[in-house]
Known about the structure:
Blueprint: H1 6-39, H2 48-72, H3 78-95, H4 100-107, H5 109-115, H6 121-137, H7 139-144, H8 148-171, H9 180-190, H10 204-216, H11 220-246, H12 252-262, H13 279-283, H14 287-299, E1 303-305, E2 311-313, H15 315-334, H16 336-352, H17 354-357, H18 360-386, H19 393-404, H20 411-418, H21 432-443, H22 449-467, H23 473-495, H24 499-519, H25 521-524, H26 532-559, H27 564-583, H28 597-609, E3 616-620, H29 624-627, E4 633-636, H30 637-643, E5 659-665, H31 686-690, H32 704-724, E6 729-734, E7 738-744
Parallel strand pairs: 3-4, 3-5
Antiparallel strand pairs: 1-2, 5-7, 6-7
Amino acid sequence: MLRKGLGNDMSMKMLTVFQIMGVSAAYLGVTLVLPWLLLRRKFAALRTPAKFMAYLMAGNFFCMNLVFLLQLFHISNRVTLILGTLIPFFAAAAKRRKSFPAVLERRTGKLRIIVEGEMGVRTLLLRTGNRLGKLSSGWLGQWFAPRWPDVLLSAGMVGLVLYMYGTNTVNVYGYCASDMVLHNYWINYMESNHIFVDGVYPFGFHCIMYYLHVVFSVPTYVLLRVFALTQTLVIHLVLLAFLKLVCKSKYTPYAGVMAYIASGVFYQYTYFRYYAPLPQEYGMIFILPSVWFAIAFLKEKDFISVAKKKIRVGEGARLSLILFTVSISMTLAVHFYDTMIAGLLCVGIAVGFCCKCLRWRYLKRLVLAGVTGILIAVLPMAAAYASGTPLQGSLHWGMNMLSSGNIEDASRENIGAQKEDGKPGDAMPGGDSEGDDCALGEQASGTPLSEVLYRKLDCVLGELQYYVTNDSRSTAEFMLGSVGVLFALGLLWYILRRPDYAGVLVTLSVFMGLLCVLQAAEKLGLPQLLEVSRYSIYIGYGLPIVWSLCLDAVVYLMFQERRGIHMGGMAALAAACAAVALTGFREPVCLSAYETNEAITCVTNILRENKGNTSWTICSANDEQQMTWGRGYHYETIEFLRSQAQIKEDTDITIPTDTVYFFIEKVPILYLDYLNTIRPEREVSLEGAETPLPQVRGILPYIEEERWVTMSHMYYWAQAFRELYPNEMEVYYETDNFVCYRVRQDGFSLYNFAIDYGYNQ
């Protein structure tokens, strides 16, 4: 029996911390370290933040498309994945075949000396220590000396992200999004080379999860539990890297990022999806790199004239185009929403850099690179569709939404029910009435143009207030006003003849303006491209860019290229931190998972105890079937109870495995209360057991009232069976909210689980 109480809980927390560290090391090793080993000479001319994004793009792109290729040929396994990963290194070695043996001999010389016994371990440690000492006082120390404020600020930002989002990962073990069950199912089927099992869908995220699962032997359910923190950290690092590239001061980028992480002005919906490793959020990693590499191409001046007046680009511009293609490709390979946002950013680039975008030599290359990226992403899906695989339901929904330009917006009801005190159906101020005012303003005849514009602006502010802020009108006005200020600063820098810098400011302001307008599209009578609530995620992610660039533009205006610009940036950062402190910090959120901590603890220990043994079954309400895929068996609680409904003397219900585990929630969770606003207080009871079993299908028997009824029946069945078999029905794990029973049985003499527990129906 597992130990009950703090000790076992602390063990699970420590295990989760080690799992986070292992998964992060595996992902960053594949997507950063390996590309650095292979491409560091190719990317040597890039600035450090651009190198970070370039390595990240190269690593993700290679892993995604390697998995796609092997899956479509049905030859994907650990051996082929590892060999495919090493192929670029073999190719690089073959290219340098003359020098490779000498390099290999030099690199392995010390290892040979140690193996042959010519050098002892203590001598090796002493030499290693001396080498590290020289390194720290040599080029590493010289590199660190002028950069220590950057290093400390970056480390602080990383620590803040780990605190804000890691608290949930360490304390809440279950999936924090309902559709993680479906993603788990899709990834599981990839183990049998059955990609697109539920239909054609952007599978880039699933390819990465599958790669980490197979190559590093990390269980899929562990990846889907802890990868959210790694993903969220990379999202914020990409945000910081982008700002470091576009800002003139070294320290203004931290102002927006710190405000985004710590400020309490944002509504939870703008960031709560970061608590689960979802494809849409994973795809956000590739949006800003696509923007930067497009801008970097437009800023390049190394176009070369050749014979017959032909123009070709130089190495820097060519590299930017390739990385732009790769980034755009991955936005679509992961989630089509991210491609839409990248497309809006391209519109902003077209406005901000209109002088260059109107030149055919720039425009044709950008368009060709973008189209190429889209085709690369579509190719695996098109190949599967051509072979007879239908589209997945979400793609049908997305296409219908785009074609109709409208959708029944359940998001407002869902979010409104969670705001304030969590009372279902509470309408927030500035809700439907604002939409009516907008419609009336547009339809009224003879209304002055200024009043019509004011009404439309009021609609935009209303949607910002509702979806992005904590229902603060003044905050919404500040957010929208900062976008307008950024646009004005961009125009000012055009006048001051800094077109590249001005183009960045205008690009981001136009993009954010479009995003704010599109969030209110339904109220304004415009086509609705995304769910209204999804816009808030991207708006929240874009606002730190706006704020950092506003501060940077002012600091740059004051100091120009003089040395004081960095001190001005530090002062702006301090002012931003003071403003966040005045408006209030937010606390780390712990979401209500879709599975109890106790259930995950039991699954983890069952898998550990039964390693190599598959003769066991879990009977539960949740998705342990997908979590334990290929390791054991699963029996749905509702099906088990329905089979008990009308027992007769000859009714026989057996489970043909050596061990059976029954997961029962004594305090059933509220399955859809993802923001944890309502505390479940209704325990299993006789009243619930006397209520007829839910007759609905799918997941519905495990939601709200139905879950309470289902668990009440299961609890009283377990008590009745335990009275009959007190020694065989043992408690495996129990807390105040949960109990897991274990039944060991002889495979040749199975127990009959069909009993009259008093509430059979």
